[in-house]
Write a structure and sequence with these properties.
Blueprint: H1 2-55, E1 77-79, E2 94-100, H2 105-123, E3 127-133, H3 146-160, H4 165-174, H5 186-195, H6 200-203, H7 212-225, E4 232-235, E5 238-239, H8 252-261, H9 265-268
Parallel strand pairs: 2-3
Antiparallel strand pairs: 1-3, 2-4, 4-5
Helix pairs in contact: 2-8, 3-4, 3-7, 4-5
Length: 269
Amino acid sequence: MANNKDNSADARAAAKAKAQQQVKSGERRTTVIIVAVSLVVIAAFAGIVYFIVNSSKVPALADAHAPAPAEATTGGIPVGATGVAGEGLTDGAVRLDIYIDLMCPVCNQFEQINGADIDELREAGTINVYYHPISILDRASMGTEYSTRAANAVGVVADQDPSHFLDVIAALYANQPEENTTALSDDEIAAVAIGAGVPADVANSFAKGEFTKWVTAATQQASIDGMQGTPTVMVNREILDPNQVNYFTPGTLKAYLEQLGGTDSSASS
């Protein structure tokens, strides 16, 4: 009997030890699961925080912390028949949006090919032109962020001296620095603007960067609009495919816009 009792006690002790071991193993598994879940939650939360923080670095166009030039809408600065930024828009005219980076040599090429035609159609009331100065080529100015500074400069002119807005864009194209150089300094940009007729006090304020955040917001908006590079051309807010309307061939863009605007190209030539 004693042996049976001993054997039974040993069995109970073994069972108890096994049960305790299973509990401990379960506790360890539970702890591992809790830790793993906690790490996933923490990682997810960190990702959300990272997204929010980085998104908040780019203000929206309507943000009070990203003041825009007067008359700027959806990142664009409108110019109508008078040639003055924000003035002279023609009711019912074709809307032409042009997204430009003033460091972009292809934008300069587009301007040289189409600039005179665009001015002619705008002055005739066939089109209203919305210029979107943005900055996607800061990387090409060796850390000087020329694209942003140049876009800020034309924003200042649009705001404070709108009659010289188009003149300053033309002058900056005429003095366009090569990519992968330090580009123009703030003083040099100011000198170009003064040469285009901008008052010295306006030009000398470029360095304050009043519209730098607006440039950043407008660049983000351009991506939302569908811009994938510069120049991007939109007609009535639809991207114009250069494979369908080759606006790098002289006269092609003009003819297309005249057709949309109901203008007789033979009469206007």
